[in-house]
Design a protein that fits this description.
heterodimer, A: alpha+beta, 10 helices, 16% strand, B: mainly alpha, two-stranded antiparallel ribbon, 1% strand
Chain lengths: 256, 273
């Protein structure tokens, strides 16, 4: 087993201010960035604040920006960096900082509450739902989301424009709208809720310019843009911008 | 040691008031600028070449080959192409190059394409230049307002692109003639046209709108097994949409350039049989 001393810059501070602090710290074979942050806590900075939980890329807690790229600290191997490289770790830069590497991700919970929940079909009780696998494949891809909010952090619509946070739900929650609209048993339409139209009108789908950063940073490898956002944009076009589809719906074509 | 301890002066974006006080607009250390720079250079090269060829109004037909930029040729001023894609819809009043009439459709298809949107938003408009790299614009409304809200008509350009691809397929069939219009012959140009039309169809059918129309709009795939299979097939192509977008862009320019070389006499089309 070989070990070496790596140079780290870790952002320390809170909402009143802060900056990058230099550290030299031991790194061993097979370690990930979160291991090094824990070693810093244990040996040099006992008051360093960091949010973490599973260390297995499944809880979505340890999101941070490593060398400027939004990543999970527990899934970023030290072997992807050269030994000479200085590794910079900062908190997510789209959200308000709480302290050190911890940010307030409350924006995402607000947006989550704005998406109307699954509407159960009438006449079916718990345990009576029956669905074909091919009908739920699409939604199941989106259910892999671990809510690390890296996609929300990297999306330039809110990252670079704080003022858009009111109007734009972000890729994670537009994906949630897509998931529900593709769900074979969601009965929202029967209650007058048109998720295709509200995606545009209430969740800000039009702000997305499909530059695919959400897909690039997703640690679960979900094709957010190609499989959720673009299909949702096409569904919104059906409702709002395509006169032929509109006409078809008015003269009573069958439901799909 | 700690550097910089002041909070942001609310200068917007990643330097908004309550966010971590980091002065740099980004901290990426990789060559993040390379992909948008190469993309912009590639697109710019095509724009320059296609503008020159579209306005040239010459050397676009060398029997049996017609340049994909000039097919179908819809004006009176078009060269007569034996059994070729001539249709004098615009008559003699059209004084410009006839390529401009038809190029609006493939141009619109590519301009509103979901892949090209990503490419030019990043490459030309820096919105954003790369992931987690701050964009230089103070305001951003995305595709919610005119003119970018027009990106939503992509599916109509898709329908037009299918028609254009059908005509280019006809041109490829015509290329199995010799220069005296006798059937059953083949030259290097035929091969160039074949490769081009395969790539054009693959790009057209891999379109996100096509994926939606063939099956993506359905809620229950299990009730539509044929459309489900088509959706799966288009989905496989769709995963390579970027690759197909670039390869068909290069192939259509090469097919045009080949016709230019043959028509201008700079090159003799090698005949296989």
């Amino acid at each position: 087993m070989s070990s070496y001393e790596a140079r780290f810059k870790v952002w320390r501070g809170d909402v009143k201010g802060g900056g990058l602090e230099d550290f030299a710290v031991e790194v061993n074979d097979g370690e990930v960035v979160l291991d090094i942050i824990h070693r810093l806590q244990a040996t040099q900075a006992p008051d360093l604040a960091v949010r973490w939980n599973c260390k297995a890329g499944k809880c979505g807690s340890c999101s941070a920006e490593i060398n400027g790229r939004p990543r999970l600290m527990c899934m970023t191997r030290m072997s992807v960096f050269t030994r000479e490289e200085t590794i910079t770790v900062t908190p997510l830069r789209a959200f308000p900082v709480v302290r050190d590497l911890v940010t307030d991700v409350g924006f995402n919970y607000t947006k989550a509450r704005e998406v109307p929940a699954f509407v159960p079909p009438a006449g079916l009780g718990p345990g009576e739902y029956r669905m074909q696998q091919e009908d739920v494949d699409r939604s199941q891809e989106f259910r892999k989301c671990i809510e690390c909010f890296l996609c929300q952090d990297t999306c330039h619509v809110v990252r670079d424009h704080e003022e858009n946070k009111t109007a734009f739900a972000g890729p994670r929650f537009l994906m949630r709208v897509a998931e529900l609209d593709m769900h074979p048993l969601d009965a929202a339409a029967d209650t007058g809720l048109d998720r295709k139209a509200t995606a545009q009108d209430e969740h800000g789908l039009g702000y997305c310019n499909i530059t695919k950063c959400c897909t690039e940073v997703c640690p679960e490898g979900i094709k957010i843009t190609d499989n959720a956002l673009i299909p949702l944009k096409e569904r919104a076009v059906d409702r709002k911008y395509d006169p032929l589809v509109w006409l078809g719906s008015k003269i009573g074509r069958r439901r799909t | 040691m700690t550097t910089g301890t002041e909070p942001h002066l609310n200068s917007g974006g990643v330097r908004s008031g309550t966010r971590a006080a980091i002065a740099e607009p980004h901290l990426r250390t990789d060559r993040w600028w390379l992909a948008p720079a190469v993309t912009a250079a590639g697109l710019l090269a095509f724009v320059v070449y296609s503008t020159w060829r579209a306005f040239a109004d010459t050397y676009y037909y060398a029997a049996p080959y017609v340049s994909p930029f000039y097919s179908p040729c819809l004006a009176d001023r078009c060269r007569t192409m034996h059994a070729g894609p001539n249709a004098d819809l615009f008559g003699s009043w059209w004084g410009l190059s006839p390529a401009i009439i038809i190029l609006i459709f493939p141009l619109g298809f590519r301009l509103t394409c979901y892949y090209y949107r990503k490419a030019y938003y990043r490459g030309f408009w820096a919105s954003p230049p790369a992931c987690a790299v701050a964009e230089p614009h103070k305001k951003y409304t995305g595709e919610t307002r005119f003119p970018l809200i027009l990106q939503n008509i992509h599916r109509y350009f898709f329908y037009a692109a299918v028609v254009v691809a059908g005509i280019l397929t006809y041109d490829t069939v015509l290329s199995f003639r010799d220069e005296h219009y006798r059937w059953g012959h083949m030259g290097l140009g035929t091969l160039v046209f074949l490769v081009n039309i395969v790539l054009i169809w693959a790009y057209t059918l891999s379109c996100h709108s096509c994926r939606h129309i063939v099956g993506g709009k359905l809620k229950h795939f299990s009730k539509h097994p044929v459309r489900y299979r088509m959706w799966q097939w288009v989905g496989k192509l769709n995963a390579r949409h970027m690759l197909l977008a670039w390869s068909s862009l290069v192939s259509v320019a090469l097919a045009d350039f080949y016709v230019y070389l043959v028509a201008s006499g700079a090159f003799d089309d090698p005949r296989f049989f």
